Amino acid sequence: MAKEKEINIEKEESLKDFAVRERAEKISDEDLKKLQTLVNQINSMQFNVGKLETQKHTVLHNLSMIQDRVSLFQDKLTKDYGTFDINIADGTINWPKEGDDEK
For 40-75, what is each residue's pLDDT tens digit? Predict the structure, then answer.
């Protein structure tokens, strides 16, 4: 509790310092340029995040469409060959070894 009171006293003293200063109508041109630069940087980054999210959405949509095509092709392989468990490197069918129980 003692620490909180000390902090509050320090805050109050710093607020008193602000009250003594003359009330300004505008910030300096230098501070305005710095502020504008910072806000423009934030806006630019937010715009870039939006572009990236749009690209991400498009890529995920395309991925989903290709996964659907893979699923349809697996159905064709199962119909034509009895399985879609294929070695993608050489095209061999990975039949279960004799005596292995299918799970």
Answer: 999 999 999 999 999 999 999 999 999 999 999 999
CA dihedral defined by 45, 50, 56, 60, rounded to 10 degrees? 160
Token representation of residue 10: 């320090």
Q: What is the mean pLDDT of residues 20-47?
A: 93
Any idea which residue has 């501070």 for tokens?
31
Q: Are 83 and 74 spatial neighbours (Cβ–Cβ below 8 Å)?
A: no
Q: Is the Cβ–Cβ distance between 78 and 84 less than 8 Å?
A: yes
Nearest residue to 28 via CA among 20, 17, 36: 36
Which residues, 6 or more positions from 11, have their beta carbon under 8 angstroms from its beta carbon? Answer: none
Q: For the chain, give every domain's residue range.
A: 28-93
What are the tokens at 69?
A: 């095509």
